[in-house]
């Protein structure tokens, strides 16, 4: 059964009204698409969080706008980093018969041989651009790094695309790499013959002699 998220049209777009929407436990949002146009809406915060967890960033689900259902995806989110809350959502009204581009999260899998030998795993990109029909977009791109040794790297061209999607990134773009361990310079031990200079020692000594006089 397809996920359905209910939404209500927003007629009043004043800033004061947006604040009231949030106070009522809703999130102001906008939904747009080439055929759909653009419409300001609001969704319940609790229902939206459940939908986002169930469908992910690239999942397609139904948005019920006052009784009319439209296939949408989450296109962009705005967060209040202090309160750790979503404060605005952009939905994209997807044409299920037309390919589209979307940024898909990269998930690193396994522990590389190089890391086991002391190397450092460097992840260069955290999302990859993918082109596919909306329903064929993957939730994530798994990148297995187990065979990576020190000074090895995985490029976009090394990744296996799915049967129903293709990568838009440059083939030579680095996704992950393993660099040599950082060499920390050895600390020199202070010589026993050298004593640290005490700042102001001479001045204090001079002051003591004056006090004696």
Automatic annotation (TrEMBL):
Which Gene3D superfamilies does the record match to this protein?
Ribosomal protein L25, beta domain (2.170.120.20), Ribosomal Protein L25, Chain P (2.40.240.10)
Q: Where is this region: Disordered?
A: 168-213
Which InterPro entries does the entry link to? Answer: Rbsml_bL25/Gln-tRNA_synth_N, Ribosomal_bL25/Gln-tRNA_synth, Ribosomal_bL25_b-dom, Ribosomal_bL25_C, Ribosomal_bL25_long, Ribosomal_L25_dom, Ribosomal_uL5_bac-type
**One example GO MF annotation:** structural constituent of ribosome
Q: Where is the Large ribosomal subunit protein bL25 L25 domain?
A: 5-91
Sequence ranges of Acidic residues compositional bias: 181-213
Look up the signal peptide feature and give its range: none
- Give the top-rank taxon of the lineage listed in the UniProt record for this protein: Bacteria
GO terms (BP aspect): translation
Keywords, sorted A to Z: Ribonucleoprotein, Ribosomal protein, RNA-binding, rRNA-binding
Using the record's annotation, list all stretches that form the Large ribosomal subunit protein bL25 beta domain.
100-181
Do the record's keywords include Ribosomal protein?
A: yes
Q: Name one GO cellular component term.
A: cytosolic large ribosomal subunit
PANTHER family cross-referenced by the UniProt entry: RIBOSOMAL PROTEIN L25/GLN-TRNA SYNTHETASE, ANTI-CODON-BINDING DOMAIN-CONTAINING PROTEIN (PTHR33284), RIBOSOMAL PROTEIN L25_GLN-TRNA SYNTHETASE, ANTI-CODON-BINDING DOMAIN-CONTAINING PROTEIN (PTHR33284:SF1)
The family classification in the record reads: Belongs to the bacterial ribosomal protein bL25 family. CTC subfamily.
Q: What job does the chain carry out? A: This is one of the proteins that binds to the 5S RNA in the ribosome where it forms part of the central protuberance.
Provide the assembly information: Part of the 50S ribosomal subunit; part of the 5S rRNA/L5/L18/L25 subcomplex. Contacts the 5S rRNA. Binds to the 5S rRNA independently of L5 and L18.
UniProt cross-references to NCBIfam families, sorted A to Z = bL25_bact_ctc (TIGR00731), PRK05618.2-4 (NF004133)
Q: What is the official name of this protein in its record?
A: Large ribosomal subunit protein bL25
Organism of derivation: Alkalicoccus saliphilus
- Gene that encodes it: rplY
């Amino acid at each position: 059964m397809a996920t359905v998220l209910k939404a209500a049209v927003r007629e009043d777009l004043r800033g004061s009204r947006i604040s009231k929407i949030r106070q009522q436990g809703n999130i102001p949002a906008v939904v747009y698409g080439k055929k759909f146009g653009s419409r300001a809406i609001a969704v319940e915060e609790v229902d939206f969080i459940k939908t986002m967890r169930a469908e992910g960033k690239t999942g397609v689900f139904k948005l019920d706008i006052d009784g009319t259902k439209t296939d949408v995806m989450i296109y962009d989110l705005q967060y209040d980093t202090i309160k750790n809350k979503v404060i605005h959502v952009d939905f994209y009204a997807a044409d299920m018969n037309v390919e589209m581009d979307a940024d898909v999260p990269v998930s690193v899998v396994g522990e590389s041989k190089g890391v086991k030998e002391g190397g450092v795993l460097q992840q260069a990109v955290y999302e990859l651009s993918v082109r596919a029909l909306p329903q064929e977009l993957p939730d994530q791109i798994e990148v297995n790094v187990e065979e990576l040794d020190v000074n090895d790297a995985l490029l976009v061209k090394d990744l296996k695309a799915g049967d129903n999607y293709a990568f838009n990134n440059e083939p030579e773009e680095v996704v992950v790499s393993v660099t040599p361990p950082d060499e920390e310079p050895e600390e020199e031990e202070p010589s026993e013959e050298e004593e640290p200079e005490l700042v102001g020692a001479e001045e204090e000594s001079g002051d003591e002699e004056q006090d004696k006089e």
